[in-house]
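$ run holo --ligand "adenosine-5'-diphosphate" --emit tokens
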Amino acid sequence: MAANKYVYLFSEGDASMKNLLGGKGANLAEMIGLGMPVPQGFTVTTEACNRYYDDGKKIDSKIEQEIFAGMAQLEKISGKKFGDVKNPLLVSVRSGSRASMPGMMDTILNLGLNDQVVEGFAALTGNPRFAYDSYRRFIQMYSDVVMDVSKKQFEHVIDAMKDEKGIKLDSDFTAEDFKEMVVRFKAYFKEQKGFDFPNDPKDQLIESVTAVFRSWDNPRANVYRRMHNIPYSWGTAVNVQEMVFGNMGDDCGTGVAFSRNPSTGENKLYGEYLINAQGEDVVAGIRTPEQIATLEKVMPAVYKQFADTAKKLENHYKDMQDMEFTIERGKLYMLQTRNGKRTAAAALKVACDLVDEKLITKEEAVAMVDPGTLDALLHPQFEGKALKAAAPIGAGLPASPGAACGKVVFNAEDAVAWHEKGETVILTRLETSPEDIEGMDAAAGILTVRGGMTSHAAVVARGMGRCCVAGCGEITIDEKGKKFTLGGKTIKEGDYISLDGSTGNIYAEKLPTVEAQIGGDFGTLMGWADSVRQLKIRTNADTPRDSKKAVEFGAEGIGLCRTEHMFFESDRIRDMREMILSTTEE
Ligand code: ADP
Ligand code: MG
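-- output --
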């Protein structure tokens, strides 16, 4: 690879170049290599991003030249000209780092329009309404991403216009309305920034690339990276791609789809689309999208081509794909693909199915499933619908996974007594200590106000496989008065609460739980893991009960036994304390 090459055409890249081109750029290049319908473009590399920071947050003139050289190539390929009034080339500017950072950095669409170009674009498409709608969208996105004037701020301009014209929906605006909206948007922009909205597409392009680089260092991105262990030094790439339009009429549309169901793993296309819409409309929730299956009736040929493409991509990447697409005048374009995120249950089913379909080996299937997510499957969970409808009153640390719902009690003795009466209880304490063990065991879940992921409550609960939310400092607790307040709600002894030990959420209501579902796929995958693993598994157990559970889960011996835990048993702890405090040897 030539040193210091900062811009790659999509046709020069492939999936193996993810570190340099980012995930989005590398996969767009790969799809082009596979002969799939992808709008052409180029990628400004992650190394250019690092250079930007090394150079004191400036884009070097050499990089700028390469970007314009890339643009010249794109003009040749497309037969259009950037900034030209008669036959304008419009592009999107899209961020894309090595690891997917969803929603971290926003996309700019329709770049290349200005007051003159929009006229030509209207004439060329024969659709002034579409041209001015595209332009006003560009002004909003550019202001938002590059100029720090949020998209939302423009909404009041739109709302005012709707009131004046007596219309309710964006779709009721005419070409003239959008033209006027552009004027008002620009006036609002000037009011906010004190200077005119930039009219030169070349400036717009460089400023947009700079904005993507800058966003790599914004607080949101930094928090996300820290949470997901993504090194700062990776940087982000920027993709510049010819626009295709899903909003030119009823033979156009845009959508997102998974090649399999990401919740269940079922081998069936799963997703949504909107007719006559552009990019962000699907997720923005302005209109309700249609299920992907209905596209088969509306545009059978496009649907078939998309379904075939999804299958081809699965076969190529040997994994479930998460894809974005747009249809322009009945023609399909792929705009993104990546391995799809999925629930633990879906991960198991997809891995097992891919082995059945002979796409991957058993070893690959084992390596593909994230062991951390499987833990959740070994514990009860909230019933999906009820969970969606519920709003938490607060949250603590997700100290021990699983879901629990029960009546609140405030000390270990009550937990044991209520449990013996047949009640399901949640033990709520300022913090727990060794005397509380029996009460913790009698409880379906444990909630504490103080303490971290390694506090007594957290460690013991994990050992017991009991759901625990720890360290919810916002709780004001009155253990003697047997009540606590959180999120403006007062919960008294005997009131129902629900805890989600996997998220830390606390609900002031009775949420139904479903038992752990260690279905066939789980057993199958663990069997494959057993047949290839070299490690032996021994358990950390201090009591006969723990040992029994561990054997059930396949442990081959005891690896760690902490004798002090034996002294915690309720019939022993008093004797131990008396011994420690005794004044005589006997
Ligand atoms: P994110 O990383 O947030 O998903 P993307 O870069 O994928 O952002 O862009 C979001 C959406 O914008 C895409 O799903 C697509 O609908 C639209 N989009 C991006 N580039 C183009 C393009 N060249 N032509 C048409 N639509 C585009
Ligand atoms: Mg995307």
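-- notes --
Residues 39, 92, 94, 103, 107, 109, 241-244, 254, 279, 324, 326, 335-336 surround adenosine-5'-diphosphate (ligand 1) (CB under 6 Å).
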